[in-house]
Amino acid sequence: MTERMRIEAILRELFEVAARPGVSVAKRAKRGKPLVGVLPYYAPEEIVHATGMLPVGVWGGTADISKANHYFPPFACPLVKSALELAIRGVYDGLAAMMVPCLCESLTFFGQNFRAARPDIPFVPVVHPQNRRSPEGVAYLRAEYQKVQARLEAIAGRKIAPGDLDSAIGIFNDHRRALRAFLEEAPRHPSLVLPGVRHAVVKSSYFMDRAEHAALVGELTRHLKGIPEGESGRGKKVVVTGIMAEPEGLMGLFEDVGLDVVADDLAQESRAFRTDVPDGGDPLERLARRWSLVEGCSLAFDPGKERNRILLELVRRSGARGLVVLMMQFCDPEEMDYPLYRKDFDAAGIPVLHLETEPRMSLEQARTRLQSFAEMI
Amino acid sequence: MSEVQTSKQLLDHYAGQVYADAAAAKAAGTPVGWSTAIAPQEFFETMGLPLVYPENHSAVISARKRALGFLERAEAYGYHADICGYMRVNFGYLLEGAKGDADVPPAPVPDFVVCCNNYCTMIVKWYENLAKELGIPVFMIDMPYNPEGVVDEPRVRYIRAQFDRLVGQLEDLTGRPFDRDRFREVMEVSRENVRLWKRAFEIVSHVPSPANGFDFYNYLTLMVFMRGRPETTEVLRLWIREMEGKIARGEGPFRDAQERFRVMFDGIACWPQLAHTAKVFRSHGINITGSNYPDGWAVQYETGDLEGMARAYASVANNMSLERQVAKRVEIIRQGRCDGAVYHMNRSCKVMDFLTYEAQRRVFEETGAPYITFDGDQADPRVFVAAQFDTRVQALVEMMEARKGDGR
């Protein structure tokens, strides 16, 4: 098999997982692994892994909302609303537990409403501190993770053996490095790693075992490095920021209008693996310290607004001509950051496109906006 | 103050004075802070650092029908119209140059901000932005949400440690030592004010109630602004005496109408349409005798007990589980002897809205008190539709009548 064929085979496999997460997850459940649903952001998935269960990302979907309207008003975040809809419809039946971080109001009250609507699925909340860099913040989060560990052990029916958590941390850090290396290499192959493909490679990680995913992505990156760089200059380079590059079909529009995504600052993508779990000491404390190292995320207390600087640097370093903001509808944390980084981008003369996204958005309207942006930059 | 004044007059006097005092302090070189509404003010009161409360400021602006200009200013700056109206009014006020006038209290631009997230998560972003835009420090007092309704020991230790850190930060800011004796005095005054505040709830529950409609929301200003000051003690004592007098004289809440129905009002008042909502209630003889909102300031702890103080501040109802929020509303409905409940689906306040539907179902199951929900906003006048409100209140009246007719 030539390198190019192998690259295409891996991409097809990951694309398939991202497009049909249910199939991928069901296959893994058949292998006997209990599944734990994990809502965004910064959940200590390593603990799930160490108990022998498989963490599976729950990021909502495009379902028609009917049952979730009994819990959330019309102006609620579409991610949590669709996740609740799917939970009530039974899509998550069979999950051993649902882990829910509480980093925004939508997630916090998703947790409470989920618990009310599906009391049969064990609920594992995680509440991160916002004074996350102080010793007391780290100590608190360590205690919170300890509680999570005890819950997950009870659900899994097995204790985490000494060394298991350290080894899970190793696997997750390797996976983070593998994704970062892939995203470094990807812009050199714009015709192979199209925006939709790039998104699918990352998204697929939420529905596979991390070691398995890291191996595939690692192999993919090696093969990409082994082939000549793709022709450049066709697409115009942009950076995307926001929560996630959904709904399905959105990234295809970038391809259609000639925009290449050379870097991202999405919560579902780069922000999720930008920060490794640091070395040294007790594993729960290491996990807690990871949260204190997170930078430039709308969900993490950031009084210096480092995000403004990080985003500008990302655009400059990647040689992008502009920034596309994928603003998820009704997302307070992201909407609150926007005016401040926008001001810095305007001052720097870097074009910004603000595109509001939601699962049932009109892709044709988005296409027109992206098209004009592509022509402008 | 002259003895002939009513508690309402005194309240208005002190509430107006707050901004003048803050401006005077700032002019004299004392740092002035902006604070979230249920922060542990005790530390700042002890240090003599004046605090102004943007949420209250925005509420006053909204009640005086001046919000729209500020909202539009903030929206033009890039703040989405879906985000909290208080925040948008506040940034609009800053962007307009932070100038007061006859309707807009002159809140001075702060030298520091205090953020305690015990009733709102989005507020962290608001205060982050204030700190960044104004280039000033933010004192973040983080009180993690309690998804299972219990403030556990790690949370208490975390919050207590933040209190200790805050003391050091305030000493650095002012260059003065933290006076522990003064701190005890402030805690004692705060404790007494909370006791009186709770006592006022009990008196309001008398049938007919001596308090009228949104009275609680008015006196709340003091609990927000001056929970640690003797002025609040003075006003609350006077208000309680006035209410006791009305009970003794057999007087109800309205001069021109009987109290026919008593309701729990859930959420923040619809300030831009306060007059309309109050008028419609009064026209049906509906009085508000309970609300989850003013209860948020009933922060109870023992003087000198910092762990207790941490637990009390972390236990504000919005920071609690669904079950605890339901239990609180059931308690309010029972204490206020409410015939029904009115839930404000306040477009600004996701923290309150996102549990409303399940909470109201459970509260109804336990109390049998009929309820309605209406769409409105605490600041943005563009959300409320009078016809919807009027029709729903009419429906509630019919449900409450039917229930009373059943002899319950």
What would you say this structure looks like, in words?
The complex is a heterodimer of chains A (about 375) and B (about 400). Chain A has about 375 residues and is α/β, with parallel strands linked by helices. Chain A contains 15 helices and eight strands. In chain A, the strands form two sheets. A four-stranded parallel beta sheet of chain A has the order 2-1-3-4, sandwiched between helices. In chain A, strands 6-5-7-8 form a four-stranded parallel beta sheet, with helices on both faces. In chain A, strand 3, helix 5 (about 105-115) and strand 4 form a beta-alpha-beta unit. In chain A, helix 1 (about 5-20) packs antiparallel against helix 9 (about 210-225) and helix 6 crosses helix 12. The mean pLDDT of chain A is about 95. Chain B is of the alpha/beta class. Chain B has helices at about 5-25, 40-45, 55-65, 65-75, 85-95, 125-135, 155-175, 180-205, 215-225, 230-250, 275-285, 305-315, 320-335, 350-365, 385-405, and strands at about 35, 50, 110-115, 140, 260-265, 285-290, 340-345, 370-375. In chain B, helix 1 (about 5-25) packs antiparallel against helix 10 and helix 4 crosses helix 5. Classes of the chains: A alpha/beta (about 375), B alpha/beta (about 400). At the A-B interface, helix 5, helix 6 and helix 14 of A face helix 6, helix 7 and helix 14 of B.
Brief descriptors of the model:
heterodimer; A: 377 residues; alpha/beta; 4-stranded parallel sheet; 8 strands; 51% helix; 12% strand; globular; B: 408 residues; 15 helices
Quick overview:
The complex is a heterodimer of chains A (377) and B (408). Chain A has 377 residues and is α/β, with parallel strands linked by helices.
Give me the number of helical elements of chain A: 15
Beta-strand portion of chain A reads 5-15%
Q: Please give the share of residues in helix of chain B.
A: 40-55%
Radius of gyration of chain B, rounded?
21 Å
Strands of chain B, count: 8
